[in-house]
From TrEMBL:
Belongs to the prokaryotic Ku family. It comes from the Bacteria. This is Non-homologous end joining protein Ku. InterPro entries: DNA_bd_Ku70/Ku80, Prok_Ku, SPOC-like_C_dom_sf. It comes from Streptomyces ipomoeae 91-03. The gene is ku. Homodimer. Interacts with LigD. Residues 256-352 are annotated as: Disordered. Residues 319-342 have a biased composition (Basic and acidic residues). It holds the Pfam family Ku. Residues 52-181 form the Ku domain. SMART domains: Ku78. With LigD forms a non-homologous end joining (NHEJ) DNA repair enzyme, which repairs dsDNA breaks with reduced fidelity. Binds linear dsDNA with 5'- and 3'- overhangs but not closed circular dsDNA nor ssDNA. Recruits and stimulates the ligase activity of LigD. GO terms for biological process: DNA recombination; double-strand break repair via nonhomologous end joining.
Length: 352
């Protein structure tokens, strides 16, 4: 890999010669500007506004524009003569736990390669010291015309450096948070947690740039004279009216995409209360409903009364029969009693 900067790491009195290499590369598809009428390239030419002629790169320098428009020329020699130690040195100023560095400050990333055999020993020493401490080194360095803040850390078996923004370059998030006061219910949080658990951890290595791939397919199709691949239109996203419904649907779709079984939960809506247009209709209905019940009640009462009457008649008849029988027996006994004394008297007379 080609180095973009050569210098040294200043670690106390230890100097470690290094080469700075870009740790990232862009895979973006770049376009050129063309003239729509004939497809000709649009080019920019560097023209001196005083002489009104095109100038070469060797004729171009840099200058600082003052507030009144005056140009103050600055040469590379002027910058190289600045009395700062970071002009060709990555100066370590301290160490801190990695979690204390705000990710908002992180900028471009670089690999630091040991420059030469003598640099191997101090390079390895700094790497192992950072590993054992579990900390990162905060440093300052000058690159591309400005002094920058940096963070050194260990990646595998090499030293990597992240350029950091200065603290005063981080804007305060004023007016970004919602202005209205919102209360989040526990059920909504539970569903959000369930969605996070369902989505699970992400394998960053498996992610790729879908947009770039689609653009490359489009270019390949047009270059070969074929029809560009058709893309199904995305469903229009409606306004989320119910957060709970949206969360439940998200959890269900996430589980389905992972091949997990989803229990279908059907919510039965409450039965609406029937409307009563007028009191007459309700009264009529009530009367119609009550009519069969009244008829049944009357029928039951009649049957009950008939049974009771029959029972009474039967009982009366029994009592009457018993009374007559008793009276007959009594009369017979009395008659017998009258006859017996007469017989006894007749017997006595005969004996005398």
């Amino acid at each position: 890999m080609r180095s973009i900067w050569n210098g040294a790491i200043s670690f106390g009195l230890v100097s470690i010669p290094i080469k700075l290499v870009n740790a990232t590369e862009s895979h973006s598809v770049s376009f050129r500007q063309i003239h729509l009428d004939d497809g000709g390239r649009i080019r920019y030419r560097k023209v001196c506004e005083l002489e009104e002629r095109e100038v070469t790169q060797g004729e171009i320098g840099k200058a600082y524009e003052d507030a009144d428009g005056t140009m103050i020329p600055i040469t590379d020699d002027d910058l190289a003569a600045l009395p700062i130690p970071t002009a060709r040195t990555i100066e370590i100023v301290g160490f801190t736990p990695a979690e204390r560095v705000d990710p908002l400050q992180m900028d471009a990333a670089y690999y630091l390669a040991a420059n030469g055999v003598p640099a191997a020993k101090p390079y390895t020493l700094l790497r192992e010291a950072l590993k054992r401490s579990g900390k990162v080194a905060i440093c300052k360095f000058a690159l591309r015309g400005r002094e920058r803040l940096g963070m050194l850390r260990v990646v595998d078996d090499i030293l990597a450096m992240h350029a950091l923004l200065w603290p005063d370059e981080i804007r305060t998030p004023e007016g970004v948070a919602p202005d209205t006061s919102v209360t989040v219910r526990d059920k909504e949080l539970d569903l959000a947690d369930a969605l996070m658990d369902t989505l699970g951890e992400v394998d960053i290595e498996s992610l790729h740039d879908d947009y770039r791939e689609a653009v490359e397919e489009l270019i390949a199709a047009k270059a070969s004279g074929e029809e560009p691949p058709s893309v199904p239109a995305a469903e229009p996203g409606g306004k989320v009216l119910d957060l709970m419904v949206a969360l439940e649907k998200s959890v269900r779709e996430a589980k389905e995409s992972r091949g997990e079984a989803v229990a279908e939960v059907t919510t039965i809506p409450a039965r609406p209360t029937p409307k009563q247009p007028s009191g007459k209709k309700s009264t009529s209905t009530a009367r119609k409903t009550a009519a069969p019940s009244t008829a049944s009640a009357k029928k039951s009462t009649a049957e009950s009364t008939a049974k009771k009457t029959t029972a009474k008649k039967t009982t009366t008849a029994k009592k009457t029969a018993e009374t007559k029988t008793a009276e007959t027996k009594t009369a017979a006994e009395k008659t017998t009693a009258k006859d017996n004394p007469a017989k006894k008297a007749s017997t006595r007379k005969r004996s005398a």
